[in-house]
Amino acid sequence: MIPAHEAAFATLSRVGIVPVVVVDDPARSSDLADALVAGGLPIAEITFRTPGAEAALRTFADRPDMLAGAGTVLTADQVDLAAEAGARFIVSPGFSTAVVRRAQELGLPVLPGVASASDLQAAVAEGIERVKLFPANRLGGPDMIASLSEPFPEMGFLPSGGVGPGNAAAYLAQPSVFALGGSWMVRRDLVAAGDMAAVARLSAEAVALVASLRAGAGTGVSA
After folding, report:
1. DSSP 92-111
2. InterPro entries, alphabetically (predicted)?
3. Active site residues
């Protein structure tokens, strides 16, 4: 059997996009999950920023056709809450040894945030092979990833923060980028308005864009 962390990362790599979802009203969760799946994005990083996040995560996690994870996880206690709600992966905006170790103890795939070479050294020390670069654009974008990949050639990156259709090509041109993190297909205003048709359309466009860029580069699925 494929280890849980490898199975999750394989799905993230195959799809190539991780929608970063902020849910203000958990009642929208089921329809939102339907829209993402309809658009070909059976993945969601539910951010632990709102009171309804845990309930939303439970709704997403209960679906067999959805790989649901928890984002903006800042503490080991939140890792426990996310695990209890059914999260299948954990994402943090920065590097926290406590978060990483608790996720590993629970057998959950974890993508800690990094913003420097020092963060990456800490990640390597904890056995981490894939990280989230955040906020990617403000840190230098694809050029930053290229620079960090030189001393850390085995590390896989998921850039998030300022990533969108306009710069997806530049990010995916970096061999170490295994997927993109973004919220343009699940904009908070669209979700709040219940415009799930727009979410499904934008999701389908995002999936098609990544597939086209990867095909053009002749690389298939990145590491």
Report:
1. -SS--HHHHHHHHHTT--EE
2. Aldlse_KDPG_KHG, Aldolase_TIM, KDPG/KHG_AS_1, KDPG/KHG_AS_2
3. 45, 132
